[in-house]
Design goal:
The protein has 470 residues and is of the alpha/beta class. The protein contains 12 helices and 26 strands. The chain has a 5-stranded parallel β-sheet, covered by helices on one side. The chain binds flavin-adenine dinucleotide.
Length: 470
């Protein structure tokens, strides 16, 4: 049974035509109307894809976020016209988490962070399949969607991002309505913005940081800075930002954030590392915790922002990723992968790859890194289809800008290389000198926090999102 025939057994003729037509699916599948001030690229002219020697191979990509969109695009670009790529994603429009902390001080809107996926379809001929994956059958090489559509594949790329625990005594309904984590940009981000706007001078904002690994290591500290800056300027000098970190210390850009907390936002931010047993009452907004000296503490907040512990989407016991046995990373939360190809170590030889935040690969869970993982994975899949082997020495880079106030920012970069002994990606360690063509090799933190960095942050963001979506 072919890819298309198998799809035909479960889905309508209209959608079958979309599969058969490849890039023409854009004309058949409904697309969301363009957001007023979205950042989507305007060029959707079809590209003439090369004949690479790959014929009739099918890749299903699950999840159209930073990792999935990049993988779908580059599989078509490098695999050529003979490689069919389907992208399964429930949401018509992608909302970027990157830059979403700037919604909290009112300098951006959630609408400005929306990106359409039109270019992937029209320009690169990726077939968009609206829906969510409910099950994987690695033996039969099929995925089943919630609406019972069955898709066959030669290789499967999973990029579903994360899902959030019911933690600290809160439920998903609490996060949605009263104590937003806003760690996936969207409605909760807008709610948190509204709650901040409703604060008064002298009020207290409490945020929590889960144990690593979590998505975007500098992100929580960046958020504390942006919120402190906003409260000082908009509400007065007496607001407080209490940061309760379950980690023993700041997890990224330590030099920058220590300076920000103790100098730039001194007297507003109070950073407490090594806390445990956090309990939050969503109604009264009272927060209880045990401090690093094991003393129970209670604080009355006006706004609470618990960044809930998270895990690969589908990895909860009984979830679709867990049922396939793919959650073999730390605490059953993430998928371990072979970082030469991002093939899941739980299913060797089954053609299942996991990229982005859902995977455990030795690099930080970040959008820039997800884009890099997707390219390494796409390159490996194309090589394997051509009977070759993945690149034995992959190199990836990470760049991250952190706003510290509404006009200034810091940054962090790192280069990762494959270590053939440990079979892991590791920060290149040559004492901070260079590895290739002058590229920095050790993690490098900005020497100062300034407005030039803030301007460059906008350029970096547009470039990254352009590479991912356009
Ligand atoms: C406040 C904040 C600030 C950040 N700032 C930065 C930054 O400055 N730099 C940086 O590099 N990173 C940053 N990040 C991290 C970055 O957003 C993530 O690391 C990145 O989005 C991960 O990409 P992903 O593709 O793995 O997941 P996502 O981008 O979350 O995409 C996952 C996609 O999978 C889809 N999906 C889920 N389940 C299913 C299913 N069953 N079937 C089909 N589709 C499914 C979802 O709808 C979603 O579209 C930040 C994150 C936050 C929260």
């Amino acid at each position: 049974m072919t890819f298309i025939e198998r799809a035909a057994s479960a889905i309508s003729r209209r959608r079958l035509m979309g599969w058969a037509a490849g890039g023409m699916a854009a004309g058949l599948l409904p697309l969301a109307s363009r957001a007023d001030d979205d950042e989507s690229p305007s060029s959707t002219a079809p590209l003439a894809l090369a004949a690479t020697g790959i014929v009739g191979k099918r890749v299903v990509v699950v999840g159209g976020g930073m990792a999935g969109m990049t993988a779908a695009k580059y599989l078509r670009l490098w695999g050529g016209a003979g490689l069919k790529v389907a992208l399964v994603e429930p949401d018509a429009v992608y909302t970027s988490n990157i830059m979403s902390n700037l919604v909290l001080n009112g300098s951006r809107t959630v609408a400005s962070l929306r990106f359409r996926r039109d270019a992937l379809t029209a320009r690169y001929g990726v077939v968009r399949v609206p829906g969510s994956v409910a099950a994987i059958d690695p033996g039969a090489r099929t995925v089943t969607l919630v609406d019972k559509t069955v898709l066959a594949y030669d290789r499967l790329v999973l990029a579903p991002g994360v899902t959030f625990d019911d933690a600290y005594g809160l439920t998903q309904a609490d996060y949605d309505a009263r104590t937003p984590h806003a760690w996936r940009a969207g409605r909760q981000t807008t709610l948190l913005r509204e709650q901040l706007a409703g604060m008064h001078d002298g009020d207290t904002f409490v945020m929590t940081i889960p144990k690593a690994p979590y998505r975007c290591p500098p992100g929580p500290y960046e958020r504390a800075c942006v919120v402190a800056d906003y409260l000082k300027k908009a509400k007065g000098p007496n607001c407080r930002v209490l940061v309760l970190d379950e980690n023993p210390s700041i997890q990224a850009e330590r030099h920058t954030f220590e300076r920000a907390f103790t100098q730039i936002h001194a007297g507003v931010v109070r950073y407490v590392p090594g806390v445990s047993d956090i309990r939050i009452d969503a109604t009264s907004r009272q927060v209880a915790y045990v401090d690093p000296l094991h003393v129970p503490q209670t604080v009355q907040a006006q706004v609470v922002n618990p960044i809930a512990p998270h895990r690969a989407a589908g990895s909860v016991p009984g979830g679709w990723l867990a049922r396939a046995g793919l959650n073999n990373g730390v605490d059953g939360r993430w998928a371990n992968v072979d970082v030469l190809s991002y093939e899941a170590t739980a299913l060797p030889g089954a053609g299942v790859h996991v990229i982005g935040d859902a995977s455990s690969c030795g690099m930080p869970k970040a959008g820039h890194v997800a884009n890099q993982e997707a390219k390494i994975c796409a390159d490996a899949i194309v090589r394997l289809f051509l009977n070759g082997q993945p690149d034995p020495q992959p190199v990836a880079n990470s760049a991250c800008y952190s706003p510290i106030t509404s006009t200034t920012a810091s940054w962090l970069t790192a280069v990762y290389q494959y270590d053939p002994v440990d079979r892991k990606m590791k920060v290149a360690s040559d004492g901070g000198r260079t590895i290739v063509n002058g590229a920095p090799a050790a993690p490098t933190e900005a020497a100062s926090i300034n407005s030039d960095n803030f301007k460059n942050m906008g350029t970096w963001f547009r470039t990254l999102m352009g590479d991912t979506t356009a």
